[in-house]
């Protein structure tokens, strides 16, 4: 196992899958050069037939991925920032998500969308959203939100092999994070949560870039004698309800940390699921930690006020512990 | 077309303001004084200034992610722009927008935009408002070669074409959408030629010649004001700097040759304009130098203003979400 970055792990997975399946190809903006990280020799390896720079036409090329999938390929479509999906909402939500169902199961839509999300300091409202909450109520899509390099590789590989449209959200702030990543056949099943840290007193369910924040906080609280369990759902659709409920049944207290805006966040959805299915386990009200319901502002002190950090998770943990 | 000396000097002053503002901004960004993505339009000053010089203060513009030159050309205040880019409370948008989102309603600057192609329907709607309200103001819409491939471009031109809206579409073709050459992603090769499909005149012009841009823009504005509909201008130009400041950090193979960059730098819009004015004998070197010095002083004051302005209070994050 090598200690590599999130971006390197993504490319490792990408290259392995592209070598494995000749029907895969990459389309998106500046994919031959790569904008936020790249792998040496990637373009030379697969050439212009399988790595295609697109014109600035999100609706056009997201839709082209749909059509190409229906005609027998396995497209890997890169949308530079998750916020740009708004330019292609019809093709993603009305077409990619629904056509299998609406064709009575005839259409096969094995598309992987790679996109970057999240606030990273001064990118302002049109480049900083998480966007996955908007897709939570679009049946037909699967949503993966890796929190580190190993999961990024494993989830991406599973996404590419999946016969459904899967959107993989890569938080920009995680791009340089490093960890040991298994070489070769390392698959993380879609719908399988991970216990990132075991604990007894409280469960923190953290999504994407909130996972490292939750882990750092858990580490600190351990010295205060507070034992925090950190669960990373890894995919929001499908959601590993069992793993979440198992943890809550053990700790009886839960905080859900999500960088999305509070209203309609994944935290809200998961919280509601726990309230419905795990109410009897709870010794304290469920607490959500999410972004303020404001567009993500540009100025760093304002962004900091909107985006939840380690402190916000800690406050919530202390609150549910009473 | 005879252009008065006062206007010539004003155009020159605006080009200098853009060039100096962005040159300083580049330096400040490299020194990490500024957060976020900074896109510079150094080398592309003539299209912003040539078009805005043909507009009235009551006319409106929309801009892009590369959105410092257009607001300056429309009369934007350097100090409030810079304060915004620094994320200060005294900035144009109280620190909410940043470099890609300069707005000054009082000057008809409807806004730069973080979404490529996002401003094109907005400019079209702004022109629609003029028609609904029976006013004779016009809207100029700036966008890049890349944006001309977004659906918003095609849908908007069709809309403006059928409704004969008072809008001037100004495509600043600088040859690239980030690292991808415009030539490799623009079917048909000409953006100006797309105008024909939407029933409006389209012209490809030397976007580094401020007087040529001004001439074409003036005609387009007159047409729009007279109710004769939209025009598409494709200004061929070049960005001297990287796509964003610090582009090299994004790495990758080089995407354009040093010779290409040098050839375009040799066609500097400001130097060419200076030369023509001086050769005509209507303007003296001293007059130009005076404008340069004035701009320099104004810019120094703007930097001081931005640096010394307060950051917003965190509580302000919740303000201005709804009216
Ligand atoms: C809808 C959308 N897609 C992608 C981007 C990322 N992006 C920002 S600028 C840019 C290139 C724009 O090219 P062009 O329109 O030619 O303008 P230029 O940068 O050359 O001024 C891209 C791809 C974006 N901001 N919005
Ligand atoms: Mg361009």
Q: What does this entry look like structurally?
A:
The complex is a heterodimer of chains A (322) and B (323). By secondary structure, chain A is of the alpha/beta class. Chain A folds into 2 domains: 2-181, 3-Layer(aba) Sandwich (Rossmann fold), CATH 3.40.50; 194-321, Rossmann fold (3-Layer(aba) Sandwich). Chain A has 12 helices and 14 strands. In chain A, helix 3 packs parallel to helix 4, helix 8 packs across helix 12 (310-321) and helix 9 (241-251) crosses helix 10 (266-277). The longest helix of chain A has 15 residues, at 6-20. In chain B, 44% of the residues lie in helices and 10% in strands. Chain B has helices spanning 5-30, 45-52, 69-73, 78-85, 119-132, 151-163, 182-185, 194-197, 210-225, 258-265, 269-280, 285-308, and strands at 60-62, 139-144, 167-173, 176-177, 180-181, 202-206, 231-236. In chain B, a hairpin with a 2-residue loop joins strand 4 (176-177) and strand 5 (180-181). Chain B is globular, with a radius of gyration of 19 Å. Chain B starts with a helix and ends in a 15-residue tail after the last helix. Thiamine diphosphate sits between chains B (65-66, 114-116, 144-147, 174, 176-178, 243) and A (29, 56, 58, 80, 84, 87).
**CATH superfamily heading of chain B:** Thiamin diphosphate (ThDP)-binding fold, Pyr/PP domains
Query: What is the domain tally of chain A?
Result: 2
If helices are DSSP runs of H or I spanning 4 or more residues, what is the number of helices of chain B?
12
Number of domains of chain B: 1
User: What is the global morphology of chain A?
Assistant: globular
Q: Going across the biggest sheet of chain B, name each strand in turn.
A: 1-2-3-7-6
- Rg calculated over all Cα atoms of chain B: 19 Å
Assembly annotation: heterodimer
Biggest sheet record of chain A = 7 strands, mixed
| Helical content band of chain B | 40-55%
| Largest sheet properties of chain B | 5 strands, parallel
- Mean pLDDT score of chain A: 97
Q: Number of helical runs of chain A?
A: 12
* Outline of chain B: globular
In terms of per-residue confidence, which ranges of chain A show pLDDT below 50 for 5 or more consecutive residues?
none
Radius of gyration of chain A (Å): 19 Å
Strand residue content of chain A = 15-25%
Report the span from N to C terminus of chain A. Answer: 42 Å
């Amino acid at each position: 196992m090598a200690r590599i970055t999130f971006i390197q792990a993504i490319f490792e997975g990408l290259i392995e899958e592209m070598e494995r399946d000749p029907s895969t190809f990459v389309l998106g903006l500046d994919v031959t050069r790569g904008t936020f990280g790249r792998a040496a020799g990637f373009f030379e390896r697969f050439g212009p037939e399988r790595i295609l720079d697109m014109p600035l036409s999100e609706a056009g090329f997201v839709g082209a991925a749909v059509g190409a999938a229906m005609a027998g390929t396995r497209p890997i479509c890169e949308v530079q920032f998750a916020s740009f999906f708004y330019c292609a909402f019809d093709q993603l939500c009305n077409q990619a998500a629904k056509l299998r169902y609406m064709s009575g199961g005839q259409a096969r839509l094995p598309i992987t969308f790679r996109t970057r999300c999240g606030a990273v300091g001064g990118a302002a409202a049109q480049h900083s959203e998480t966007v996955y909450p908007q897709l939570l109520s679009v049946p037909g899509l699967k949503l993966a939100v890796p929190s580190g390099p190993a999961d990024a590789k494993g989830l991406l590989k599973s996404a590419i092999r999946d016969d459904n449209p899967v959107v993989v959200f890569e938080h920009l702030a995680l791009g340089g994070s490093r960890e040991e990543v298994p070489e070769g056949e390392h698959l993380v099943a879609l719908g399988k949560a991970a216990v990132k840290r075991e604990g007894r007193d409280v469960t923190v369910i953290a999504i994407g870039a909130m996972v490292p924040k939750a882990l750092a906080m858990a580490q600190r609280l351990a010295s205060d004698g507070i034992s925090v369990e950190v669960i990373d759902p890894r995919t929001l659709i499908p959601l590993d309800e069992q793993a979440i409920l198992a943890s809550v049944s053990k700790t009886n207290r839960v905080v859900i940390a999500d960088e999305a805006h509070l209203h309609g966040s994944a935290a809200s959805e998961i919280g509601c699921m726990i309230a419905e299915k795990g109410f009897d386990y709870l010794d304290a009200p469920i607490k959500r930690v999410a972004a303020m319901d404001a567009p993500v502002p540009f100025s760093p002190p304002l962004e900091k006020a909107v985006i939840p950090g380690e402190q916000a998770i800690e406050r919530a943990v202390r609150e549910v512990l009473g | 077309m005879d252009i008065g000396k006062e206007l010539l000097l004003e155009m020159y002053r605006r080009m200098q303001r853009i060039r100096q503002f962005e040159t300083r901004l580049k330096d400040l960004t490299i020194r990490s004084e500024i957060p976020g993505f900074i896109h510079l339009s150094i080398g592309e000053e003539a299209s912003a200034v040539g078009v805005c010089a043909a507009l009235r203060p009551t006319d409106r513009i929309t801009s892009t992610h590369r959105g410092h030159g257009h607001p300056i050309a429309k009369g934007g205040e350097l100090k409030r722009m810079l304060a915004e880019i620094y994320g200060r409370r005294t900035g144009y948008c109280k620190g909410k927008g940043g470099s890609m989102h300069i707005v000054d309603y009082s000057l008809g600057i409807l806004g730069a935009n973080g979404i490529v192609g996002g401003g094109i329907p907005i400019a079209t709607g702004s022109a629609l408002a003029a028609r609904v309200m029976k006013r004779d103001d016009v809207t100029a819409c700036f966008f890049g070669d890349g944006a001309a491939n977004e659906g918003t471009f095609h849908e908007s031109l069709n809309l403006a074409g059928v409704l004969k809206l008072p809008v001037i579409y100004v495509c600043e073709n600088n040859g690239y959408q980030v690292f991808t050459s415009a030539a490799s992603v623009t079917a048909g090769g000409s953006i100006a030629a797309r105008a024909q499909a939407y029933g409006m005149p389209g012209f490809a012009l030397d976007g580094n010649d401020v007087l040529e841009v001004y001439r074409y823009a003036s005609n387009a504005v007159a047409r729009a004001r007279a109710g004769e509909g939209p025009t598409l201008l494709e200004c061929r130009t070049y960005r001297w700097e990287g796509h964003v400041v610090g582009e090299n950090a994004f790495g990758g193979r080089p995407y354009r040759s040093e010779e290409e960059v040098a050839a375009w730098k040799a066609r500097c819009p400001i130097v060419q304009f200076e030369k023509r004015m001086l050769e005509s004998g209507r303007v003296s070197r001293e007059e130009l130098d005076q404008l340069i010095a004035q701009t320099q002083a104004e810019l120094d004051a703007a930097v001081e203003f931005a640096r010394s302005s307060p950051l917003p209070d965190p509580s302000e994050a919740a303000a201005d979400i709804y009216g």
